[in-house]
Amino acid sequence: MKIRPVLILSMVLLVLGASGAGCARAPDLSQQLEAIARPYRFSLAAWEARTIPHELGQLVSGWRDRTPDEVQLVISHFDTVTRIEALESQIQAMERAGQGNPSQLEEELDTLWEQELASQDEVERILERQIKTVLAEQGIFNPFDAYRVRPRINFPPLNFKLEPLPKLLVVSPRERIESLEEILLTADISLAEMEAVEAAADELGVSSLVVGIGGLGAAYPSLVTNQASLRFTLDAAAEEWLHQYLFFRPLGILYSLDLLGISPDYEIATINETVASMVSKEIGALVYEKYYAPYDNAEQSSQEESSGFDFNREMRNIRRMVDEYLTRGEVEQAEEFMEAKRQYLAENGYYIRKLNQAYFAFHGAYADSPTSVSPIGTELAELREQSRSLKEFLLGAATITSRRDLQDRLE
C-alpha cells in the first residue's frame, strides 16, 4: 500500500534535492562552488537507489514482526547511543593527550556500534508508528486535511532512516547574512577537508561554513542523525515529515522556489523552517510524554544553570552587533568581532568551530533559535497562541504566502 506513494514522493523530492539545497544568485559563483565541492559531493540519487529496496524489504517484514516491548527496546537503543558518544569522547581525549592505549575501548566501541545497528531498523518503525499516532490524535494526517479528504491517511507516509548524515556547505555574502548556496557533502568528509573546502570558497569573496545537520527532508525516506538523543530524534523525525507535508502547500511551494533560486525569498524560507520547527517540537514533546516520560530520570542541571552563563542571550546579542556592523558596511570589523566572541564562548564552555556570516545564515533561518533576531519567530508564536489547536495553526501557517500575509493575519 505504501509502495506507490513512496516511489512518487521519492522522485518528486529527488528532483528538488538533486537541484541543490539552494542556488547561488550569480551563476559563475554557483559553478565555482560546485567545482570546489565536487570531490566531496553527497549523491542523493545514489543514496535513494541503495535505500528504497531496503525500505521495501523492511516494509514487508514489518507487517509480520512486532517487538513485544517496543518502548523498552527504544530506551535501550538510545542508551547505547549515549554510551557510544561517551566512549568516543573518552578515546579522543586519550589520543589528544597521547596517554594510554585506547585499543580496549575501541573494541568496546565496535561492540556498541553492532548493538546499535542491530536494533536500528526496528527502532525506526516503532518511532514512526508512535509519531503517526500522535499526529492522528491531533487531527493531522496529510496536506489536504483542509479539504476533509477521506480516508484520512498519513501522507506523505512517515518514513525516516537513522544514519550518519551528510554535511552541508553553507555560503553567505560577507556584507550581509543570507544563504546564497547550500551544497550537501559526504558524511565522512574529514575536518581537514572541510577546512580546505571553506578556504577555497572564501577565496571567492564569500563567507562559508561546513556544518552538521540533524535531519534531511529532501530525501525520501527522510534522514535523521543516528547520533542524537531520543528527544532530539523525535523532534527531527517529525520536522522532516512536516517539511514534506508543507511541500504540497503554498508555503512549501514558495520555499521550494526559493531553494531552487527561481524566486528567492529569505523571509519565506524563515517562515517555513520556523513553522516546521515549532510544530515538530510540540509533536515530539507529546510523543515523549505519551510513551517515554514515565521512564525518564531526573535530568542533571544544565550547563547554563551550573555556570550562570546564558548562551541564548549571548548569541542574540552577538547577532545584533554583527548586523549593526554589516549595516554600516564594516565587514572586517564584524568578522573580527565574531572571532573574538567565538573565543569568549569557548572560554565559557561553548565551542563553535567557526563563527561567521554563513553560521548565522544557516542557524538564523529558524526564527525560534537563539541565533535569530528575526521578528518572524515572535509573530508565528503569536499566531500559534491565537489558534485553537495545533492542527489549526499548521493548516493556517501552511497557506502563508509572504511576511506581509503573516502580519495581516495577526492584525
Give an account of the 3D structure.
- The chain has helices at 3-18, 27-37, 44-64, 70-97, 103-137, 191-202, 230-246, 250-259, 266-291, 303-307, 311-327, 331-347, 357-363, 376-386, 390-397, 403-410; strands at 160-163, 167-173, 181-185, 206-212, 215-216, 222-225.
- With 411 residues, the protein is mainly alpha-helical.
- The protein has a 3-stranded mixed sheet. A 3-stranded antiparallel sheet has the order 3-2-4.
- The radius of gyration is 22 Å and the shape is globular.
**Strand order in the largest sheet:** 1-6-5
> Strand tally, please?
6
Shape: globular
Span between N and C termini? 44 Å
Low-confidence stretches: 1-25, 298-304
Fraction in helix: 55-70%
Oligomer: single chain
What's the alpha carbon Rg, rounded to whole Å?
22 Å
Which whole number gives the mean pLDDT?
A: 86
Briefly characterize the structure:
The chain has 411 residues and is mainly alpha-helical. It contains 16 helices and six strands.
Topology:
Blueprint: H1 3-18, H2 27-37, H3 44-64, H4 70-97, H5 103-137, E1 160-163, E2 167-173, E3 181-185, H6 191-202, E4 206-212, E5 215-216, E6 222-225, H7 230-246, H8 250-259, H9 266-291, H10 303-307, H11 311-327, H12 331-347, H13 357-363, H14 376-386, H15 390-397, H16 403-410
Parallel strand pairs: 1-6
Antiparallel strand pairs: 2-3, 2-4, 5-6
Helix pairs in contact: 1-3, 4-5, 5-9, 7-8, 7-9, 8-9, 9-14, 11-12, 14-16
